[in-house]
Design brief:
This protein has 199 residues and is of the alpha+beta class. It has three helices and six strands.
């Protein structure tokens, strides 16, 4: 009885093994191209001429685009040059007004016995010209750099002297020897300063 059961189990195992060993190849569908190459030379020639015409059209469009781009670059460069010229021209016009005031001041004659009044008038005239000059430069984006009493900043200040001081904190600008300037957000000349050093 036990022997029969063993034989049946072996037969079942062998059948399962044979089934597992069997490999069924999947069916592969071969896709045919949508368009077959024609055998007629005339048709081939027509297709070649059609593709050649398309290629020529694309090439001509590319050439036009390239020419348009070069024209755009040329116009942009010209506009940039014109703008720079215009800005410089407007600045010169504004500065000419100051030159006129300087010339008028230099042409003033000192009347006899009126030396003190002349000096005072000349001084006031120079102050007016100085204010006018600062206004013109300020409109162009020029502004002075703060120095005295400020913490020393190597990006804005140029230290040429250092002196012990009890009146200023350490590393503080205590004297401005030459004013520095910024043009918009760029330092075009750092302020020349003397820096305090703690005792």
């Amino acid at each position: 009885m036990v022997s029969n059961e063993k034989e049946q189990a072996v037969e079942t195992l062998e059948e399962g093994t044979e089934e597992e060993q069997e490999f069924v190849e999947p069916e592969v569908e071969v896709l045919e191209p949508d368009e077959q190459i024609p055998d007629d030379p005339k048709v081939l020639l027509e297709q070649l001429q059609e593709q050649t015409a398309k290629a020529k059209d694309y090439y001509e469009k590319l050439l036009r685009m390239q020419a348009d781009f070069e024209n755009f670059r040329r116009r942009s460069r010209q506009e940039k040059d014109d703008l720079a010229r215009y800005v410089t021209e407007q600045l010169m016009v504004n500065l000419l007004q100051i030159v006129d005031n300087f010339e008028r001041a230099l042409c003033m004659e000192v009347k006899e016995g009126n030396q003190e009044a002349f000096q005072e008038s000349f001084k006031e005239g120079m102050k007016m010209v100085y204010r006018q000059l600062n206004e013109v430069l300020g409109r162009e984006g020029l502004c002075p750099i703060s120095a005295v009493g400020e913490q020393f900043d190597p990006n804005k200040h140029e230290a040429v002297m250092q002196e012990e001081s009890t009146d200023f904190p350490d590393n503080t600008v205590m004297m401005e020897l030459r004013r520095g300037y910024m043009l918009k957000d760029k330092v075009i000349r750092p302020a020349m300063v003397k820096v305090a050093k703690s005792v």
